[in-house]
Design brief:
With about 375 residues, this protein is an alpha/beta fold. The protein has 3 domains: about 140 residues, Rossmann fold (3-Layer(aba) Sandwich), CATH 3.40.50.10800; about 120 residues, Rossmann fold (3-Layer(aba) Sandwich), CATH 3.40.50; about 80 residues, NadA-like (Rossmann fold, 3-Layer(aba) Sandwich), CATH 3.40.50. The protein is about 45% helix and about 15% strand.
Length: about 375
């Protein structure tokens, strides 16, 4: 049984059957009642990819790092019910005071990308890389990674990056060392490095499951080592979707997230972070047409918020992020009712040792953002 299976069993046991028997109206009414009762003692951050049934109760919306930073500024909040995924709640816990409690309404809400790089694999891979390239590598990790990976990166002089500042952080990293290890998302790493002028043949992919490299050239020419990880949502956009749209709707602009594959990003009109996508559509001309390559809950919300524009998903058969969607109205209500009863469930706590090193990686990024 893997970790996700264990968490699923715990969550199913913990959520009483009565929540499935409540109407949406009853649950919404109770959430509002509890929020009003706790006031500033309770803070609910909601990630952009959350369902509408959950995001309606968010005190702040944003990407993972923005929400964690906001959590850190919530001095009066005793409890933070993080409506996102596990690594986001970890970051919030590390950036808030020890007496503030961060909870995840459903422990099954993980991130497949973050899970593609665990600490044992990373330390094993790092040892192999050191054997090949010596002390010439600086690690960078996408914020979509576990606290343990952030801690590893911090301990080894590296930093975190977001999809919005990855190019800036990669530029900085090259002033520190000759080579960069970028984990856990190979696509963001590749797309960013290409923007900075690194050639594809100067990038090697490290496959953690086999502890080997997918690379046919001379290792001495490698400038970027890409961890073989990906976002299960953004990898579902492919070049055929782009080509079909170009034929059917040639006037429609294509805007994608840089977690998409290299060929999709190259063939699109624009690529950028979640915030970049939102701001681009906010600034777009009325009547303009857009195909968006990102998570479906956000695409649908953007459609509703921009009725003066035509907005579709680049992949017409796209599904929402399954792990993000594990946070739903019943789990949110259950976790808040437990708080009301004086019981903290699904608390996310990161050890002091991991927090110390992980904060180094976050602080190096924040200093340059």
């Amino acid at each position: 049984m893997d970790v996700l299976d264990i968490l699923e069993v715990e969550s199913e046991v913990s959520l009483p059957k009565r929540y499935s028997e409540l109407s949406v109206e009853e649950m919404e009414s109770r959430v509002k009642e509890i929020k009003n009762k706790f006031g500033e003692r309770l803070f609910i951050p909601g990630h952009h990819y959350q369902k509408d049934e959950v995001i309606q109760f968010a005190d702040a919306r944003g990407d993972s790092l923005k929400l964690a930073q906001i959590c850190a500024s919530m001095d009066k909040a005793e409890y933070i019910a993080f409506c996102g995924v596990h690594f986001m709640a970890e970051t919030a816990d590390m950036l808030t005071r020890p007496d503030q409690k961060v909870i995840l309404p459903d422990l099954r809400a993980g991130c497949s990308m973050a899970d593609m790089a665990d600490i044992d694999q990373t330390e094993r891979g790092w040892k192999k890389m050191q054997g090949i390239w010596g002390d010439t590598i600086l690690p960078l990790t996408y914020v979509n990674s576990t606290a343990a990976i952030k801690g590893f990166v911090g301990k080894n002089g590296g930093a975190c990056v977001t999809s919005g500042n990855a190019d800036k952080m990669l530029e900085w990293a090259f002033t520190q060392k000759e080579r960069i290890l970028f984990l856990p998302d190979q696509h963001l790493g590749r797309n960013t490095a290409v923007k900075l002028g690194v050639k594809l043949e100067e990038m090697a992919v490290y496959a953690p499951l086999t502890n080997s490299f997918e690379y046919e050239g001379d290792f001495e020419n490698v400038k970027v080592i890409l961890w073989k990880g990906h976002c299960s949502v953004h990898e579902k956009f492919n070049i055929q979707h782009v080509e079909n749209l170009r034929k059917q709707e040639p006037e429609m602009k294509i805007l994608v997230h840089p977690e998409c594959t290299y060929d999709v990003v190259q063939a699109s009109d624009l690529a950028g972070s979640t915030n970049f996508i939102i701001e681009t559509l906010n600034d777009a001309e009325p009547g303009s047409k857009w195909a968006i390559g990102t998570e479906m809950n956000l695409v649908n919300r953007l459609k509703d918020e921009h009725l003066d524009k035509t907005i579709v998903s680049l992949n017409p058969f796209m599904c929402p992020c399954l792990t993000m969607n594990r946070i739903d109205l019943p789990h949110l209500l259950w976790s808040l009712e437990k708080l009301e009863q004086g019981e903290v469930v699904n608390q996310i706590s990161v050890s002091q040792e991991v927090t110390k090193n992980a904060l180094l990686s976050l602080e190096r990024m924040l200093e340059r953002s």
